[in-house]
Amino acid sequence: MLGYLLRRILAAVPVMGVVALFVFLLLRLTPGDPAAILAGDNATPERLERIRESLGLNEPLIVQFVTWVNKLLHGDLGTSLISNLPVMKMIGQRVEPSISIALCTIILAVIVAVPLGVIAAWKHGTWIDRFVMGLSVLGFSVPVFVVGYVLIQVFAIELRWVPVQGFRSIFNGFGPFFERMILPTCALSFIYVALIARMTRAAMLDVLGEDYVRTARAKGINEVAVMMRHALRNAAVPVITVIGTGFALLISGVVVTESVFNIPGIGRLTVDAVLARDYPVIQAMILLTSLIYVVVNLLIDVAYTLLDPRIRY
Amino acid sequence: MTDTILDINNLVVSIGKQPKGANIIDGISIQVRERETLCLVGESGSGKSVTSLTTMGLLPKGTLVPTGGSVKLVGEELLTATDRRLRQLRATKMAMIFQEPMTALNPVVPVGRQIDEVLRAHTKLDAKARRKRILDMMEQVHLPQVERIFASYPHRLSGGQRQRIMIAMALVLEPKLLIADEPTTALDVTTQKQILSLIRELQRDHGTAVLFITHDMGVVAEIADRVAVMRQGRLVETGPLETVLRNPTMEYTRNLLSSVPSLVPRPPREETREPVVLEANELSKVYKERAFFGKGREVVAADKVTLTLRKGRTLGIVGESGSGKSTVARCIVRLIDPTSGGVRLAGREIADISRRLLQPHRQKIQIVFQDPYRSLNPRVTVGESIAEGPVNYGVAHADAMKRARELLELVGLPPDAVSRYPHQFSGGQRQRIAIARALALDPDVLVADEAVSALDVSVQAQVLELLDEIQKRLGIAILFITHDLRVAAQICDEVVVMQHGRVVEQGPAAEVLTHPKEAYTKALLDAAPGRGWDFANFRPVAEGVGATL
């Protein structure tokens, strides 16, 4: 198992390398002078020269790449062109809200969706099944901002149970953090509940037709044990896959939710950077997103081996 | 009677909830007594499995519903029993083992824990006592290294070992009734023999009543005390084993028995001087498993296999699963590439030529696969499937379709079958279509890879007859791959016996299958179920020999 982990981590290095190369070339290969792109439309010649100097644009390409990667490995992602802050620091501030919301959402979604899916599959073809599936169609089709604004209207404005928007770090007390997390989490988990419940139901329906489920029933054990111990564990692989990729998506791109609830997360940072052509930030975001996907995929694969003893690498 | 364990009386099972659903089981009555094995025999669709699932209360809910009669287990009515009561009875009073040991165990739970579940659900024993009892039961089913196997996952065990686990699981609480639904069908003959004797042994020790479901008359002859023959949901005939095998009263039973191919090889055909159409010379296939780090693993699937096949003759390759017989067939047809050795098709070496150069030779050798339900494209009409080959070789579409009609007639199907789809045909008909498809290219060699193994005996007999007739008419050479020695004895001129990728013995079928020289061939013949019976003549083989002498 350790050997496998090590191999997988090693295998991630070339992937990240290719991404790094792509990100590096993004600036250098765009037509025109990178310094001019970076400096924007109203740059003075002095500013252009300063940027060239700082990026080492007068060096050969390969030297530039090596210095750039070297800086990267030391945690230096460059400086934002807009705020003049180190990119590393900007992202650092934004990571906590994003991870908080992603984790809360995925946990809530799994807690709600997996039992729903299991029950729907177990009661396949009955009104319960149709009800759950109807709910999931609803979850898919209602946009997250609609859900968000409805929740704000009802729970924050009418009932005044929770604050309307904003974010507080969990390190400043769980209460304020939790209060502000509830609504965005609920709004965002809507679609993930729909997705995961559907996936669980489909996987369970497949598994329930298997011979070993019949064997389990022939043993005279109760239906809950049949469902949980025999069916769900075997249905888990596709469900875990959806949960994993869903989580990666959540960290890197929940712009709408962040906007509706005014949460300073990575999603909005990215959008702001793209709109302002803040290249160093964009580059960092691409790298970060790729890293998140690589790590999540690694975790999914590890989960496979834990769930299914037949899977060995 | 006091010792009647299972009493099924006038049972009716229908489709669906509506009152007018068709009856799948139509008024069958059977009894199984203590220490008795009742074999429920029938072809596919006869309702034998539905009968057993009804007894266990495991019918798919809502699709199949018992609508009449009664099923009593030691006097207790099961059809009206609550789900809760049925759960209590399962594993304690009645238990079941299934056909596919490969899929009947949960792949993600160690087998010991799967047996443990039975004890946890039905007894109040503590962990230590449960473990002791499980290990004891695993010893009783003759599993080796029980401690190790206890903690193993199913995929680490062989098919035979898994079926032993299933049996241990079923019998650990000493139920009164054991239902065995084709428990040996998916196993090799040598393993089958062991499992059958294990079931007999345990039945003797525990006094269990066994309801044994099978389609294989050989197995019936080995294990039954009494036999019940089913057909289309009705009971055709029931009686003691000897009576049913010797004096079947019903026409259907007689036909069923007559269809069982005899283990005694058919009289050898005359040697021919016809040209050799297919030659394999020291053909080998090695699978290499490449490891990311460290050394890879090598599996020799076929090891220097040499064989020759003349025009108009049938060569059989027999062996158990994993013997390499299918690998050889696939190498010869070049569906996979051999690692070394040669294949000469009509004098032309084809083992190592490129796919492009191979193309014109492909039409000379065609293959028919095992599973007729999966080997035809379900979205393409039968006619198009048959015509596809010739069209690929440049025949005009209209001509190819005309030929398809002729071929369908040749294999005994109506010519208008061209415009229908595979799902509209039965298994036997589909295999006829597959044969017609193979013949469409006028091949010199027809490779039949377990082509009759998935078929019921009566259908099997028809398809074998068809192959024989086609061979006589077209002079085609047949390479026949099978695990079934009975089939091999009836269709092959020569046989090659394979084990672990190697040829163990080869020669004329009449010789090899009556006077085997090698220990493995002897073991195979010895394990063939019901070898003592000459089913088609309704008498034991020994009597037949006595009569002809």
Automatic annotation (TrEMBL), chain A:
Keyword Acyltransferase part of the UniProt annotation: no
Record keyword Transport present: yes
Pfam families, A to Z: BPD_transp_1, BPD_transp_1_N
BP terms from Gene Ontology: transmembrane transport
GO cellular component terms attached to this protein's record: plasma membrane
Cellular compartments annotated: Cell membrane
Residues annotated as transmembrane: 9-27, 99-122, 134-157, 177-197, 235-261, 281-307
Family matches, as CDD domains: TM_PBP2
Principal subcellular localization: membrane
Membrane topology: Multi-pass membrane protein
The ABC transmembrane type-1 domain, residue ranges: 95-300
Record's keyword terms, sorted: Cell membrane, Membrane, Transmembrane, Transmembrane helix, Transport
Classification via SUPFAM superfamilies: MetI-like
InterPro entries assigned to the protein according to its UniProt record, in alphabetical order: BPD_transp_1_N, MetI-like, MetI-like_sf
Assigned protein family: Belongs to the binding-protein-dependent transport system permease family.
PANTHER family noted in UniProt: DIPEPTIDE TRANSPORT SYSTEM PERMEASE PROTEIN DPPB-RELATED, PEPTIDE ABC TRANSPORTER PERMEASE PROTEIN
Name this protein carries in UniProt: Peptide ABC transporter
Automatic annotation (TrEMBL), chain B:
Localization per record: Cell inner membrane
Keywords, in A-Z order: ATP-binding, Cell membrane, Membrane, Nucleotide-binding, Transport
Main location: membrane
GO terms for cellular component: plasma membrane
Domain of life: Bacteria
Main function: Involved in beta-(1-->2)glucan export. Transmembrane domains (TMD) form a pore in the inner membrane and the ATP-binding domain (NBD) is responsible for energy generation.
Name of the featured protein: Peptide/nickel transport system ATP-binding protein
